Give the backbone structure.
Amino acid sequence: MIDQQIWREGLPEPDYERIIHNVRNIIIHHSATSNDLTDYTNVVRNIYLSHTQVNGWSDIGYNYVIAQDGTIYKGRDPGIYEQDNVMGAHFCSSNSGTMGICLLGNYVNIYPAQESLYALINLLTWKTGKDSLNPYGTSSHPLNPDLNIIAGHRDGCSTLCPGDSIYEMLGFTRQETSGKLKSCGYNYFSSIASEGSLPEIQIYQCQADKTVKININDLYVTKICLADLQGRIILSCNIHKLNNNQYYFYTDTLSPGIYFVVIISDKSLFSEKIIVH
Amino acid sequence: MNKLKLIGFLIIFLFSTKGLCQYVKKMTLEIPYTKEIKATADSLYLVSPEFTMTGLVVKIDTSGSFLNSYIIADNDTIYLNSDEHVTDTSGYKTSNLIVFKNKLSEFHFYPGNIKKEAEFSFINASPSKKVLKGKGEKKKCRLFRTRND
């Protein structure tokens, strides 16, 4: 991912009061610039100057920009805050609760390159996993009461953006994002937890014997595993069952860091963060 | 006298520094006639803003239309369309951003359905000499290390 300090080098830095918000909808755009351009950093710099000095905006409008070769540029400068949670300027003057991702190029008639599409799916997987957003879900927005969690710019107001070709592929994008989330062990579908009957899960870490114990009530567990920050399952077979409600595993073979205990039941999937010292 | 000279130098220095930091130059062209552009053929104008540009945005009155308007740059014909990312409350209609393959100092413009004036914003996003110099130095360092490894 290309940092602002790199692509913006030599251009004036934005200086303004950032607005930080929780993202409920991820909005996909295209830049409507030529598909023949290969100096992607130059395109991003031009977009930045056009947004800040021609449109008079505080910063580049999007949170992320994806080039045709799959390179992801960090967009709006969040300052000391998180890149994905700084409010941008991209969605029909109603940006609250939205994160903007722009694919460089014009996709009215042509389909995006595979590299950029898969960079988009990876970014969507990361963000939906991080914020427990359902790729197939909707979230109410002032411009659209049934706005998809993964939506196109045109779902908010009258515009061709993100181009017919990308818009057609949003279903595929949701499907791929959902598939990747499943393989990463994230919870994203309507679950008993979201309906208010959160099962009781208690996780204890014991430094002395380097074990993690898990107590689960009111849930038929089919599998428990441990995932790293990238969502890779690193322990699935070495989790032992003490009795019907209790499980444990050893942490002595793990490198220090942050992990997720992933609990899969017959109806849903939960993850809890643990820190191994 | 010396103080006056010093002030004079400072003013010149400040202006020259400001010139180096100009990323966008704006120019309004009246159609069909303007002093800044020359008619070369049937309503095709040569636009020479005396500014190196990497990109371009055109603003017109909201009642106007970009229909059939285009520019010719680098042997490429690029049509102007409305930028749908700009919700304009300023009384302008803004074109899509045009980014050129190479830096330009002039291009041809065909106004099409633009009947009144058009405000051109010429964008120069090319890296400054300072940035390019820095990159060159880094490259030299890498090469030096490789040879010694």
Notes: The first strand of chain A starts at residue 25 and ends at 30.
